[in-house]
Fold GspL cytoplasmic actin-ATPase-like domain-containing protein.
Amino acid sequence: MANLYILMPASEADAPLFGWHTNGIWRFAETVPEDADDVFPVAIVPGTAVTRHSVQIAATRPAEVRQAALYAVEDDVAEPVDRLHIAVGRPAEDGTRDVLVTSASDMAGWMAWLSANQLGSCDVVSAHSLMPEDADAFEAPDEILLRRDGRAFAVDTSLPDDVLRLLAPTHGRVHGAALARRLGTTPAGEGAVTGEGYLKTLAQVYETAEPGSIISLRQGVYARRRRMGLESASRWRFAGLLAAAAAILWLASIGLETAAYHSQADALRTQTVDLISTAVPSSNGNVDAALTQLRQSQRIGTASVRPTIASAALYQALAVAEGAEIRTLRYDAATGQLTALVLISNYAEADAIAAQLETAGLGVTLGQARQTGDQVLAELTIEGAAS
């Protein structure tokens, strides 16, 4: 069997249904099959737990697309974004994308159960993503799949008939006798009155669908890690051998050069000890001790700056950057340095602020800077200019 399908229940009190087929023969169980390690699991979650939205997204980078989609559907579902899990589909010709939305807690619960049963490598899809193409309304045991204006979604079977008629497409193809009676029409095909029949129908759509056409809920933090198959590994084997041979030759050349450098290093070490002993007699030829003393002497020669002077100069320098804001100030009395985190509009403003401080006679070191939304958080270290 190639795939193991798991029909996740709408209620935690109910048990999942497992289904698989071998040589065209379907088998079903309410527990994980013993040979589940040899199959690829596909979890199908209730369609009523997942909503479908159409969003116009101009971004192309995956991270930007997800961020834009998340905030685009926030108003539709009336939930904070931190409580949502979304999955984004491929872009249509007009630039719109289908976005599936489910509760973050539901997604976490499904993945926790699947992982606890050694099925964490599975794909996770919504039931209405697997709605048969020849149906506009499909009857299932615990839900009804509907397709309107090309978008599939699911509603609960307890929905009143008058509301159901408003949601169902007019003159649509209805699969299921009971559903057809509720809609006041004749059935165009059979629905699924049992969980086994429903799982089999959804599995057949999954297996025959165009690759990438079904939106997987395994996106974002739940994205599956890609594995390199044997075919891909053999494709890179020759390149790997060439790289290994080049590495061996490189290491050999490094070894020869290192041997030559050793003899030069011994001579340089002797000369260095002589110079250190002359420059810093108290170090007794110890290079580390001599460097420490020299650095301390150099620090003494550097003009220390008081925090009040440094902060006043910083506030004055911020005038060149409109809207600049100081986030934190930290003064190190041992080094006489003032470190500031400044929120600015762009990286160029950090250079402009530093130039103003240097004009005031201070030394400035630009530290790390990172993008925060549409602004930049820059680090500046201010000290007295060298004397």
The CA atoms of residues 132 and 231 lie 33 Å apart. The chain has a mean pLDDT of 85.
